[in-house]
What we know:
Blueprint: H1 2-20, H2 33-38, H3 43-73, H4 79-111, H5 118-143
Helix pairs in contact: 3-4, 3-5, 4-5
Amino acid sequence: MKTKLSILVVTAIVLYSCQQKDWTGSNENGIETDSSEISGISDRMVRKWFLMNRESDSIMASAQQTIQQQRGEVESHPPDEREYINTCISEAQQHLDQLKKKVKYIREFATHIEKYDLALQHTIDSLKEDYVKEKFKMDDALKHLR
């Protein structure tokens, strides 16, 4: 009887400690996946955030690679073109930095949402619109480099 009671107590302690443990997962960008699902945000909204995360990571990596490549090749151009290319590189880098800041803010904002409600929709739409505008500005600046 004493052994059964000990096993029951140990099992109860293990279950209790497992419930207390933080089981929230996170992806490579530092956004908690389970905490946002627990917080009441719909699965559809979570999928949108993660798609935007992957897209933004890909866009920023590609832009950074293009900028670095152009910086390496700027010396191979005639002197009169170098100033224009350097200006385009600088502009593209500024837009990339702005995009990185916006993405970082959106990620932080998303991780702090505790409960989704309709009032948040305007903020979410505004953040997405800012992201898209900055992405287009950066794309336009990169077109001048290619």
